[in-house]
Structures are given as C-alpha cells and as structure tokens.
Write a structure and sequence with these properties.
Helix content: 40-55%
Strand content: 15-25%
Shape: globular
Number of strands: 12
Number of helices: 14
Number of domains: 2
Strand order of the largest sheet: 9-8-7-6-10-11-12
CATH topology of the largest domain: Rossmann fold
Low-confidence stretches: none
Distance between the termini: 24 Å
CATH class of the largest domain: Alpha Beta
Bound molecules: glutamic acid
CATH architecture of the largest domain: 3-Layer(aba) Sandwich
C-alpha cells in the first residue's frame, strides 16, 4: 500500500521485523501484522466562521482486533498522514498487549493545526469527523482517546455525536472524557505518572538514587508537563523543559508548579517565564542529565544526534521518538532505554480503567487508580527487564517481542476465518 509508505510507518515496520526475526514469528502472521486490519480515510467539509467551506482529511486505522476492541488516540496535527496513523496504531497493539489490556491497537488523526481554528470551527470539524468514523467506532469496537492536539473537550463532542446517532448516552465510546461525563480520576496525568513509575524502576535497577537524579523533558504538553511535575515530587531535579518553540535550562532545578503558573500567563512561552536560560530543542536533547524524557513528536533522536546524547536513561514519553539506527548508537554508549510502548503506557492503562468504569457505571477512587496503574507498569517493567536479560536483547526488543507474542498467540488460537 503506497500511501502507508512514510518514514514513521517504515520505523514501526522495521522494529516489528527485527522483533519478528528474533522470535521466529510464524510466517503466516507476518504480513498480516505488518499491515493494518482496517483503514478509513474521510474527507471532512467544515463550514468556517467566515462562511467558506474547507475540506479536511481525517483517518482512523485499526491495526489488530484479535485480543479485543481496538484502542488509541486521535491526533490533530498538520503533518498527520495515513502512514503515521498506521504506525501509531501498530504501536498501540503492542502497547496494549504488553500491559495486559484486553485491546488491540488503533489510532486516528485529522490533518489540521487545531490552534488556527476557532472553538466553534473545532467543534464542527470534530463532530463531522466523529460522524464519518461512526460506523467503525463503539465501546465494543474501537474506543478513541486524546493524543497530540486533542483533549477532553474534543472527546466530549465525539461522545455526544456518537450518542446522538444511537439515541442514548454512550460514555464508553471514548476515554479521556471530563469527569462530569464519566471520565476517570487521574486520566489527565496518567501518561506522565506512568513515565515516572517506569523511570523510578529503571533508577532502582541501575542503583541510582532519585535525589541525585537530574531530568530533561522535551515537550511540555499533557505528557511532558505531568512527568516534570511528578518526578520533581518524587525528589528528582528537573533541569530543562521545552515545547515546540524552544525551552529553558536551569542547573539548579526548575520549580515546576511555579513554572506551570507562569507558563499559562505567558501564552505558553517557556523563555518568557524567565525561570532559566533559553535553549533549543536540540540543545535539550544533548544536555548532561540522568534521565532524558522525549515527550513530543516521533523521530527526534536519530543517527544525526544520538552519539551526542549525555543521559543515562532515555524514558520515551512520546511514541516512536528514537530511530533504529539511533537505538544501536545509544546501546553502544550504555544508555538504558525504557521503550515507548512501556514508558508511555500509563495513558492507555488509565483509559482502560475509565472504559471499565463507564461500562459498569461504577467509579473508583484516585488512590485505587494510582495503585492499579503503578502495579501494572512496574510488573510490565520487570517482565520486560527479565526478558531482556534472559534473552540478551535490548529493552525495546524485549518489550516488542512480549507484546507481539501475545498477539500472535491470540491469532493462532482464534484461527483463520473463513
Ligand atoms: N494517545 C495515548 C497513547 O498514545 C493514549 C491512548 C488511549 O488512551 O487510548 O498511548
């Protein structure tokens, strides 16, 4: 499929191929798991505030539903394309399997820069997108969630549009909803909290103390900002953060709650908070620190900059931030990688809790959510670590092989229809 052939899709397939080779994956499954099970491309005519009609392109890709309904976020970004969405959907499949969630992977996207739209335009775009993907989503089919450029408000519009079509409220059709619509406590910070849990496990494994840990976080959105706040609460020193426009560095450590207060009043400009010296995103990646957390877009760490990274641990908050060539360089340099499908799985894990609560109409406490999240992540971490030591393979390959193996077993047990 030519439209799939983009660099992000090639990265996801190259990772899959490497893991499939190492585990001698049944050849009958290989081609099927390389390609998505179902891909939908939709064109979305939207009436703009000035009366013009603009047509946007949207996608929903379901990579594999052998283990349950498919699950994954919706991304609003100008660079979204079918290949990227398909890659992200494939990563969701392995991520859900590794965490032991009864889901397959999916992802959606709309090619749009959401900040250029008014609130009303964003609502019309979202409702039209939800109406177009309506036939393939649902609480037992495919459950969207937020991702880059989307949030709880957008999930509410999707939930409402879906509910209008079927004639009754269906909170379980999306996760990442506001609490008032049946959202879950702790969903907002879940990905960041999971990144921190996995990082604390890695520090323990490497005999490093959290008090002497310095952290640099690339990306200050839903993942990066909560990661920075929570890891500081745990006792680490956050020395740098950045967003797409650049970042700040302060060797003494940034006071994250104060930074967050100022950030919102400076129109999301980190340098304008005056809490550290200005640095670029590229400078941030090369800082001398214990933990580097890329939590923005994919393919940030490549063959061009990997040799210059100075971190001990790379905790991948983003999906696909590291290319395969870069992996090899980091491994040679002794960087301990917590791969994306493990490090950032906190988001989909709490999405699963939200979905269960929505289906049961019975809600859990914040302590319950945090405790269960931590148990799932720490157990996935230790299983991956043991696998990697036993099989003498990288943490990335260990995580991928464990996820792929569970999906392969499901396929073989179900057999081929017809
Ligand atoms: N977008 C998040 C991810 O990439 C969360 C997906 C979900 O909660 O379904 O893992």
């Amino acid at each position: 499929m030519q439209e799939l052939d983009t660099h992000t899709f090639r990265l996801a397939v190259a990772q899959f191929d490497q893991a499939a080779d190492a585990m001698h994956l049944d050849p009958r499954l290989r081609e099927r798991l390389t390609l998505p099970q179902r891909s939908l491309i939709v064109s979305l005519p939207v009436r703009m505030d000035d009366g013009r009609v603009e047509v946007f392109t949207g996608y929903r890709v379901q990579h594999d539903s052998s283990r349950g309904p498919t699950k994954g976020g919706i991304r609003y970004h100008p660079d979204v394309n079918l290949g990227e969405v398909a890659a992200l959907a494939m990563w969701m499949t392995w991520k859900c399997a590794l965490a032991g969630l009864p889901y397959g992977g999916a992802k959606g996207g709309v090619q749009v820069s959401p900040h250029t739209l008014s609130h009303a335009e964003l609502e019309r775009l979202t409702r039209r997108y939800a109406a177009e993907i309506f036939p393939i989503i649902g609480p037992d089919k495919d459950v969207p969630a937020p991702d880059i450029g989307t949030n709880a408000q957008i999930m509410s519009w999707i939930m409402d549009t879906y509910s209008q079509q079927v004639g009754y409220a269906v909170p379980g059709v999306v996760t990442g909803k506001p609490l008032t619509l049946g959202g879950s406590l702790g969903r907002d910070e879940a990905t960041g909290r999971g990144v921190v849990s996995a990082t604390l496990e890695a520090l323990r494994h490497l005999n490093l103390s959290v008090e002497n840990t310095t952290v640099a976080v690339q990306g200050f959105g839903n993942v990066g900002s909560h990661t920075a706040r929570i890891i500081q609460e745990e006792g680490a020193r956050v020395i740098a953060v950045s967003n797409s426009r650049g970042g700040i560095y302060n060797a003494k450590g940034l006071d994250i709650p104060e930074l967050l207060r100022r950030y919102h009043t400076t129109g999301n400009s980190l340098p304008d908070t005056k809490m550290g010296e200005s640095i670029t995103n590229e400078d941030l990646l090369k800082l001398n620190c214990t933990v580097l957390v890329p939590s923005a877009l994919s393919e940030q760490i490549t063959v061009h900059n990997a040799a210059e990274l100075r971190c001990r641990i790379l905790a991948e908050g983003a999906n696909g931030p590291t290319t395969l060539d870069a992996d090899r360089i980091l491994e040679d340099n002794g960087v301990f990688i917590i791969p994306d499908i493990l490090a950032n799985s906190g988001g989909v894990i709490v999405s699963y809790f939200e979905w269960v609560q929505s289906l049961q109409r019975f809600f859990w406490s914040a302590e319950d959510i945090q405790g269960r999240l931590q148990r799932i992540i720490t157990s996935a971490f230790s299983r991956t670590l043991h696998f990697s030591i036993e099989r003498k393979t990288s943490m990335r390959m260990a995580a991928l092989m464990s996820g792929i193996d569970l999906v392969a077993q499901a396929h073989l047990q179900r057999g081929l229809h017809p």
